[in-house]
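Structure in, sequence out. Go:
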C-alpha cells in the first residue's frame, strides 16, 4: 500500500472512530477492562490494528473484552476497506500507523510488524 493510501484509509478509520460507540461496537466496560490491562502490561496494540496479549496469559474478563473490541475493530476495518478499495488487513495496518500509534501512552506495549513487543 502506498503512503497516500495509508493516509486515506487512516483518515477513513479516524472518521469512523468519531462516530458513536455503537459504530465501533465496544462497551464502556470492555474499554475500561482493556485500558487497565494495557496499563498493567498484559495487553498491547499490534501492527495489524488489533489488540494482543503481551504475556500470552490473561483472565477471562480481559480476553472477553479484547474479543469484543477486536470484533468492533474488524467491522470498522471492513467498512474502511470497502470504502477505499483496499483489504481489511491493509485498513487495520493503516489504522495502527495513523490512529493507534498516536494514542499509545507511555508504558504501554505495542508490536510493530515483524517485531516483538516493545514498550513506549
Amino acid at each position: 500500500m502506498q503512503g497516500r493510501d495509508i493516509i486515506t484509509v487512516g483518515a477513513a478509520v479516524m472518521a469512523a472512530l468519531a462516530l458513536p460507540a455503537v459504530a465501533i461496537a465496544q462497551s464502556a466496560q470492555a474499554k475500561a477492562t482493556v485500558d487497565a490491562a494495557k496499563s498493567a502490561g498484559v495487553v498491547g496494540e499490534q501492527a495489524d490494528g488489533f489488540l494482543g496479549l503481551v504475556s500470552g496469559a490473561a483472565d477471562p474478563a480481559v480476553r472477553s473484552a479484547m474479543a469484543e473490541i477486536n470484533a468492533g475493530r474488524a467491522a470498522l476495518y471492513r467498512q474502511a476497506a470497502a470504502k477505499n478499495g483496499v483489504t481489511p488487513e491493509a485498513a487495520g495496518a493503516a489504522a495502527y500507523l495513523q490512529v493507534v500509534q498516536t494514542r499509545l501512552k507511555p508504558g504501554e506495549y505495542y508490536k510493530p510488524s515483524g517485531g516483538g513487543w516493545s514498550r513506549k
